[in-house]
Design goal:
alpha/beta, two-stranded antiparallel ribbon, Glutathione peroxidase, 4 helices, globular, 5-stranded mixed beta sheet
Length: 161
């Protein structure tokens, strides 16, 4: 049996280990985040998705990342403050990760190999949709907004599987 996202453990933004198995049975939208990016206003859309679909089984998982233009230089505490103050973020945030390169986090190794098309994350706010079984079923570039019909349609399809 091939590995799924549920086989991985990540660190929460508070530094605690979190098994992604805890999200089994939920649809996941995994996003690499940055506080100083042209796409940063997508935080608001991600929070709207979270509020709209959380009771139906969507979990938005945000992974801060400083790999692209050094646009996430803050500490975890600064990131939480920024997200809460500016966008009222209540979706799950995690420890800062590398989405590419020699120190790429195992989560992103899996996402970028299983997502279609495969290959490195190209910028901040790239989104991966994961089904209830932990399989990558969608990949959306930074320019695809959280509110887009393309993304919300895919989320709704997975929630109704």
């Amino acid at each position: 049996m091939s590995e799924t996202i549920h086989d991985l453990t990540v660190k929460t933004i508070a530094g605690e280990d979190k098994s992604l198995k805890d999200y089994a049975g939920n649809v996941l939208l995994i996003v690499n985040l940055a506080s100083y990016c042209g796409y940063t206003p997508q935080y608001a859309g991600l929070e709207k998705l979270h509020q709209k679909y959380k009771d139906s089984g969507l979990r938005v998982l945000g992974f801060p990342c400083n790999d692209y233009g050094a646009q996430e230089p803050g500490t975890n505490q600064e990131i939480v403050q920024f997200c809460t103050k500016n966008y009222g973020v209540t979706f799950d945030l995690f420890d800062k990760v590398h989405a590419k390169g020699s120190q790429q986090h195992p989560l992103y190794t899996m996402l970028t190999s299983q997502g279609k098309p495969p290959g490195d994350v190209s910028w901040n706010f790239e989104k991966f949709l994961v089904n209830k079984k932990g399989e990558v079923v969608g990949r959306y570039r930074s320019s695809v907004t959280p509110e887009s019909a393309e993304l919300t349609g895919a989320i709704e399809r997975e929630l109704h599987q």
